[in-house]
Design goal:
Elements: E1 2-6, H1 10-21, E2 25-30, H2 44-47, E3 52-55, H3 59-71, E4 76-78, H4 87-97, E5 100-103, H5 109-125, E6 131-138, H6 148-160, E7 166-169, E8 180-187, E9 194-200, E10 205-211, H7 216-232, E11 236-238, H8 240-244
Parallel strand pairs: 1-2, 1-3, 3-4, 4-5, 5-11, 6-8, 7-8
Antiparallel strand pairs: 6-9, 9-10
Length: 246
């Protein structure tokens, strides 16, 4: 494939390496703040014949990037998180421009398997007098908190574990109501990403943990998702469940 990388930070560089390792051609790198980029903004000329774009930028810029790429009829893989409040608008952009958009809070196959494990555990523990909470840790440069991955995990718990009705963020100054699912976030050093789900009962506790070792798995997953999206050649919105089939 001919790939355009939107955003040339740590993840953008990892995606570039993963794409080349899979024998794809990176024909454009768009980033207004990086000397290593081939262009500062998205345009037909700057994208140099790209067949698909992979976006790892910032929540504040992702919506504009999606709109520009969709108008150019380029399928888009979005790894940026923190923009999901704008999902209805993005769905409209995809429909109006007849373009495929695949988004995920995390492209690691391990993380997506972790989602499935958490979903199953939530179903098993429903009505068994267990409580649940989420803890996540990332590097200090991460722009959003909680992470998109943590929010995805929370969504799966709330759907499958009726004891929890809504998400609440860090709040140590007063008790957490039993119907609220707490997400605790920490930002430290260069941690790639650690997510833990705790199910706590009167007699025992279950801890499910996923720990990212490096960005390679996330980047390789994004490239694999781009391959899937181009091959599928359909318009509309897609998620990691569509790409991985679970």
């Amino acid at each position: 494939m001919k790939i355009a990388i939107i955003g040339y930070g740590k993840m953008g560089k990892a995606v570039e390496a993963a794409a080349k390792n899979s024998n794809h051609e990176v024909v454009a790198i768009v980033d207004s703040k990086s000397d290593g980029a081939t262009a500062a903004e998205i345009s037909a000329e700057n994208l140099n014949g790209a067949e698909v774009a992979i976006d790892f930028t910032h929540p504040d810029s992702v919506l504009g990037n999606i709109r520009k790429l969709a108008e150019l009829k380029i399928p888009i893989v979005v790894g940026t998180t923190g923009w999901y409040d704008s999902l209805p608008e993005v769905e409209k952009i995809a429909a109006e421009n007849s373009v495929g958009i695949l988004y995920a809070g995390n492209f690691s196959i391990g993380v997506n398997t972790f989602y499935a494990i958490v979903e199953h555990a939530s179903k098993l523990l429903t009505g068994k007098n267990f409580d649940a909470a989420i803890r996540e840790i990332h590097h200090t440069g991460k722009a959003d908190a909680p992470s998109g991955t943590a929010r995805e995990i929370a969504g799966k718990i709330i759907v499958n574990f009726p004891e929890k009705k809504e998400i609440t963020l860090d709040n140590t100054e007063q008790p957490v109501p039993s119907e609220k699912l707490q997400i605790s976030s920490a930002r430290i050093g260069k941690v790639v990403g650690i997510h833990e789900v705790v199910f706590d009962g009167a007699s025992d506790s279950i801890q499910l943990i996923h720990s990212g070792k490096n960005r390679d798995g996330y980047a390789a997953g994004a490239v694999s998702a781009a391959e899937w999206l181009v091959k599928k050649n359909e318009t509309g919105m897609f998620t990691a469940k569509d790409w991985l089939g679970f």
